[in-house]
Amino acid sequence: MGSPIWVLLGTDPAHQTAIVSTDEILKCRNLRKTFGDLVAVDDVSFTITAGETYGLLGPNGAGKTTTISMIAGILARDGGDVSVCDRPHGTSSAWGKRRIGYVPQDLALYPDLSARENLRFFARLYALGRAEARTRIEEVLEVVGLTDRAKDPVKDYSGGMKRRLNIGVGLLHRPPLLILDEPTAGVDPQSRNAILESVAALTGEGVAVLYTTHYMEEAERLCDRIGIIDLGRIRAEGARRELVALVGELDRITLTADGTRPVPELEALPEVREVGVQEGRLDVMVADARSALPRVLAAATEAGLVVRAVEVHEPNLESVFLHLTGKALRD
Ligand SMILES: Nc1ncnc2c1ncn2[C@@H]1O[C@H](COP(=O)(O)OP(=O)(O)OP(=O)(O)O)[C@@H](O)[C@H]1O
After folding, report:
1. Of 222, 244, 266, which residue constitutes the final position of a domain?
2. Per-residue pLDDT tens over the stretch 212-238
3. What's 279's domain CATH number?
């Protein structure tokens, strides 16, 4: 458990500064949801601390949206518990909902209104005071990178810009927990980058982020911890490197060199597990390529090899997913 943190929730009395006694912002235990005979979510548990981005990574139909809908309090669960900022949370918990910014896949914007007018509308829904709303709307436009286009009607926006505005709506009331459901699905690369940068900036300010995606690269770039979900169950959880280590895959350093031959100096290095020798190339298997690379290169050079190119291959979450479930992430 970390040190206590403060989360500023606004100046309106209904959104007054809250003291969060722990840095554990979200805790869910043994979540379960069935639709008829289908078990959509089965015994899902995880926690997210302040400033942390937790990614739920899994293919279509894995149970990501169902899980986060229960956490957001918009879908009743069949089993398990959720607590937000140390208080039990569910579909009827207004206290918890004020502490969550939920950004669904579907857009809920007024196309004829501008971004600023949309935000003004939602600020009223959140019962933000006038002055508070005015400041917060400008801050949120800045965070999602739409200040320059704030006056334009939303119907003229690209899909990615609408998605960014939707995220802005979720941020208006300064929630300590932001839930994003596949925020980059189908958006242009520029908006995708803007979204990823906004999320990184928010976690820097202490916001806890729950992020669902089936894009492995996003989970790897953004998430401090990742839960790999398939058929409603979390199959493994951890930081990228922990997940990769879990399935026992090694990094590979490929050295392209003339006149390759077995190199005992390389095999003698403690970090080297195995060396494969082929015509014109050596495949050096290590647990952590980034830390082993300088010594591997030095040993190869000392042994008289003239290295012409170096390539590092680190096993990614796709290989972990394949290993755990026997199928590709994007079937
Ligand atoms: N309201 C519902 N009624 C019946 N089945 C449902 C309902 N909502 C979800 N499901 C089913 O539950 C399973 C999990 O769906 P869910 O939408 O949570 O997956 P997901 O991982 O979010 O997928 P996607 O990436 O496509 O959004 C799927 O088999 C889906 O068909």
Report:
1. 244
2. 988 888 888 899 999 999 999 999 999
3. 3.30.70.100
